[in-house]
Amino acid sequence: MPDLDLSIAICSWNTREDLQICLESLALERASCSFEVLVVDNNSEDGSPDMVAELFPWVRLFRMEHNLGFTGGNNYAMDQHEGQHFMLLNSDTIVHPGALSTLLAYLTSNPSVGIVGPKLLNPDGTLQFSCRKFPNPVAALFRNTPIGKLFPNNKFTRDYLMADWDHNLEREVDWVSGAALLIRKGCLDRVGKMDPEYFMFCEDVDWCWQAHQHGFKVMYYPKAVITHAIGRSTDKAPNRMIGRFHRSMFRFYQKNMVPRMNPLLRPFALLFAATMLGMRAGIFILHNRLDDYRRQRNRDAA
What we know:
12 strands; 11 helices; 2 domains; alpha/beta; two-stranded antiparallel ribbon; Spore Coat Polysaccharide Biosynthesis Protein SpsA, Chain A
C-alpha cells in the first residue's frame, strides 16, 4: 500500500443511509489527498456492513460481533490504521469539498498543533457549536435544563459553548467535537488511544485534555467545513444514551478536574458533581417518559 497521509475511522451503528451519504462525500475527496477509510461496524442490524462491502469496496470494513461503543470502535481502528495521521469522523457527516486536504495542510504548517477540528454545520446550514470550553457542573446545571430555560442567555452556557465570538475565525480552544477530529501522529503517539472507560460521550473532551497536558495545541479551523446531523445513532436509544452521557461527564470530572483540587475539597466536589449530574440525567429521562406517555395517550384516543 502506498504511503497514506491520513486514516479516517468511522464507527457505525445502525446508520445505513447516513453512512452511505458520508462515504459518497469521501469518495469525491479521494483525488485531493491520500487517505484510507476504516469503517468499524458495531454489530448493526440494518444492513450497514453489507452496503459498505457492496458499494464501497475501497473502504476497509471491520464487522464487530458486539457493540464496542464509539470509543472501543475507534480504538480498534487505531490498531489497524496505516495512515500517518488519524481522524475521527461520525457516520452522520458530509465532508465538504477540500475539507480533508485543508485540515492536513493546516496540520503540516502548524507543528505545535496536536488536534484540529473543522467548522461543523447543522443540516440546515446553521453553525454547530463544535468547539467548547471544558465542562463543569455549573454549566451542566444550566445547559438544556429547566433552570437554563428560565435563563436562556446565561453566561455559564454561553461561555461553555464559546457562543460569543466569530466562528469564521481560527482559534485555539479547549476541545473540539469527535464528530470530526484530526489528530497528529506525534500527538497520538504521546497521548495514546482514547480512554476505554468512556463507552461513548466525553471521550473527545478527555482526548483533547490529554493533548493539552502533553503540550499540544487544540485548534478550531473554520476553513474546512463538514456537515453533521447530531444524534442519528444515539436517538435510537435516548434514555440509555442519557445515562451514558452523564456517567461519562462524571468520569471526566473525576479523572481530570478533581485531582487538581485541594485534597480536603475533593470528596465534596465529587458529591456535588454526582448530585448535579444525577439530577440532570433524571430530569431528561423523566421528560422523555412523559413525552412517551402523552404520545401513547394521543394514539389511544385517536
